[in-house]
TrEMBL record:
Signal peptide: none annotated. GO terms for cellular component: plasma membrane. GO terms for biological process: actin cytoskeleton organization; intracellular signal transduction. This is Pleckstrin. Gene3D superfamilies: Pleckstrin-homology domain (PH domain)/Phosphotyrosine-binding domain (PTB), Winged helix-like DNA-binding domain superfamily/Winged helix DNA-binding domain. Pfam families: DEP, PH.
């Protein structure tokens, strides 16, 4: 299961989406017990990429057997490809009269009935009493907002959630299988992906991170043995696609934006080319961001509605457009917060 975005009453909302063996279920929050809705996959068809939305990238469409259309937007290309691959597998299995082979965590590792993994995850993420997130340098890469496998088992025992390490390992494997914890780095990924079962490793070499944390990994540059620029080190606060006006030609293009805190930067990318090479960056400390009704140099018919402007401390103006009024409000709030607190 991975967080995703779906349509409800034609408005785009962030949902927690779970692929079951015969349906896609979506929840308002990851910790909810019952889904807000579900899409049966028997007889369904999947379209990717889906071009129905000109202003939205990385969209795919699931059409149910009853011809109801559901649209989902991933946050990055790899995520969409993973979803598409698994949903197609599930649809193919159902066509052949089989169920999608995703074993129940509870059955496959014999979790006790009274264990609530959602509650355990919330406790584990607690700022004061939970598992501490670290920056770990390993194999010429810097992993931000992660922790080691043995730290998780130590925490489960110290909080009396497990009596011993084998019991702690069983709970941690449950959290990994259900997508609450995710593997970072080669050692933990091998454990999670190579065997028939998804295995959690009680090791200092194995790194993991919380599913909804600001985790990201930096590599050393190939030219010199230095870590990537300081501006990429902050935690990711928000990311998504917006329309941006170019500075020279004044034309509007879809760009993927990633907002980071401490240091306060927003980077923008060509959404078709991945996130290794940003087209530009905006240093947000001391900047001003406001909603605007129009853009001085834009022809009125070109862009209309949900516009906002960032003015940097050195007086550079950036004009952006969100897909909805709510999205504009969320971006403005996030950028204002980062520009005040981030260095």
């Amino acid at each position: 299961s991975r967080p995703n975005i779906g349509t409800v009453l034609n408005s785009w909302k962030v949902m927690w989406v779970v692929l079951a063996d015969d349906a896609i279920e979506f929840y308002k929050k990851k910790t909810d017990n019952s889904p807000k809705g579900m899409i049966p996959l028997k007889g369904a068809t999947l379209t990717s990429p889906c071009q129905d939305f000109t202003k939205r990238m990385l969209v795919f469409k699931v059409r149910s057997a009853k011809n109801q259309e559901h649209f989902f937007q991933a946050t990055h290309l790899e995520e969409r490809e993973l979803w598409v691959k698994d949903i197609k597998r599930a649809i193919t299995c159902l066509q052949g009269g089989k169920k999608f082979a995703r074993k129940s965590t509870r059955r496959s590792i014999r979790l006790p009935e009274n264990v609530n993994l959602s509650e355990l995850y919330v406790l584990m993420k607690d700022q004061d009493k939970g598992v501490k997130e670290l920056k770990v340098e390993k194999d010429k890469r810097l992993f931000n907002h992660c922790f080691t496998g043995n730290t998780v088992i130590d925490w489960l025992i110290s909080e009396r959630k497990a009596r011993n390490r084998p019991e702690g390992l069983m709970l941690a494997t449950g959290l990994l299988n259900e997508g609450f914890l995710l593997p970072a780095g080669d050692v933990s990924k091998d454990g999670a992906e190579k065997g028939a079962e998804c295995v959690f490793l009680d090791q200092t070499e194995a790194l993991y991170y919380f599913a909804d944390s600001g985790f990201f990994c930096e590599g050393y540059s190939s030219d010199e043995d230095v870590i990537m620029k300081e501006e990429f080190r902050g935690a990711i606060v928000k990311q998504g696609c917006l329309l941006k006006q170019g500075h020279r030609r004044k034309n509007w293009k879809v760009r993927k934006f990633i907002l980071r805190d401490d240091p306060a930067y927003i980077h923008y990318y060509d959404p078709t080319k991945g996130e290794n090479d940003p087209l530009g960056s905006i240093h947000l400390r001391g900047s001003v961001v406001t909603a605007v009704e129009y853009v001085p140099d834009a022809k009125r018919y070109e862009v209309d509605g949900n516009l906002f402007e960032i003015i940097t401390s050195d007086e550079i103006h950036y004009y952006l457009q969100a897909a909805t009024a709510d999205e504009r409000k969320d971006w403005i709030k996030a950028i204002q917060s980062v520009s005040k607190t981030g260095k």
